[in-house]
Amino acid sequence: MRIPSRMEKIFRCEWANRGPREMAYHDREWGVPVHDDRLLFEFLILEGAQAGLSWSIVLKKREALRKAFDEFEPAKVACYGKEKIQKLLENPELIRNPAKIVSAVRNARSFLQVQKEFGSFDCYVWRFVDGKTIHNKWRRMDEVPARTPLSDKLSKDLQRRGFSFVGSTICYAFMQAVGMVNDHVIQCFRHRELVGGG
Fold first, then answer.
1. Does residue 145 have a pLDDT over 80?
2. Does 48 have pLDDT greater than 70?
């Protein structure tokens, strides 16, 4: 995938123009199909961490979060006890919301159960879109929904399996991030590339 230089006249989704982190994330990651369980877990936790905050804050803290959460290895995070959770709460580089940190540990445990049942979280979550990206055709970002009946369904199923911070809006943001849906506006250069890539 060729990444355009900042000097090129190229159309991106409006939110990607807020800064270099957003631009890099938009150009390299957002909407790219993810089938790696570790990365799927990372995005699930990051989207939950975003609740009530801006994605810019999450991107700014992403490296610190990766380091603090053992690179988002679910098997490691699932083993965190009270002492580790307290250390995370005292780390000034993180989003120090107690409910979100406890949720990450709980979600890691639920994630492992899903892996056990389905062979991988990838197999589980991609069933909701029949294994294929849904390519939407939005002309403006204000047309993009915050949630859909499909994200409602995913949210309910995750909650039934013990996950938290997985409301429908968070689930839809997760689906966008991991390429289950392509919500780049049709004028964006990434929309065409992702449609071309399947």
1. yes
2. yes
Q: Which listed residue (22, 42, 55, 124) is catalytic?
A: 55
Active site residue 47: yes
Per-residue model confidence (pLDDT) at position 159: 98
Any idea which residue has 């997985």 for tokens?
166
185 closest CA partner among 130, 127, 125, 140: 140
Spatial contact of 66 and 42, defined as CB atoms under 8 Å apart: yes
Residue ranges and CATH numbers for the domains of the chain are 14-196 (1.10.340.30)
Terminal C-alpha separation, the chain: 14
- Which among 30, 47, 126, 172 is annotated as catalytic? 47
- 182 has which bridge partners? 135
- Mean pLDDT of all residues in 54-58: 93
